[in-house]
Amino acid sequence: MKKFNKNDEGFICANCKRQVLPLGYTSRNHCPYCLYSLHVDNNPGDRSNACHGLMKPIGILINKKGTVIVHKCQKCNEVKKNISATDDSQKQILNVMKNC
After folding, report:
1. 60: buried, middle or exposed (CB in 10 Å: 19+, 13-18, 0-12)?
2. In the sheet where 79-83 sits, what is the strand order?
């Protein structure tokens, strides 16, 4: 089974209610304005997880691939890591870093 499915769709953020446009180069995973996500994937882009809980950004990691956002599901408590997107709010990334 594929571990990554490109699923680059726009959406309305469940947290801040802003319209999020497709990213254009990979799967859009989270809101670039508030960094929140939805717990909808088992594997990146597959949209096969039934939880659909709001995933809060709780940490930032820096690795060889770049900035990674750590999300925790507010419904089931699962923790997932996602590479940041080029259009992510640097101010929000710094705010998450300060609060962890």
Report:
1. buried
2. 37-38, 54-63, 66-73, 79-83
CB 7 within 8 A of CB 45: yes
This prediction has a pTM of 0.87
- The answer to whether 49 and 10 have CB atoms below 8 angstroms apart is no
Tell me the sheet residues that pair with 70.
Answer: 59, 81
Q: Give the DSSP H or E segment for 19.
A: strand 19-20
pLDDT tens across 10-47, in order? 899 999 999 999 888 777 889 999 999 999 888 877 78
Max Cα distance, the chain (Å): 38
Listing DSSP states for 29-90 in one string gives -B-TTT--EES--SSTT----S---EEEEEEEEEETTEEEEEEEETTT--EEEEEPPTTS-H
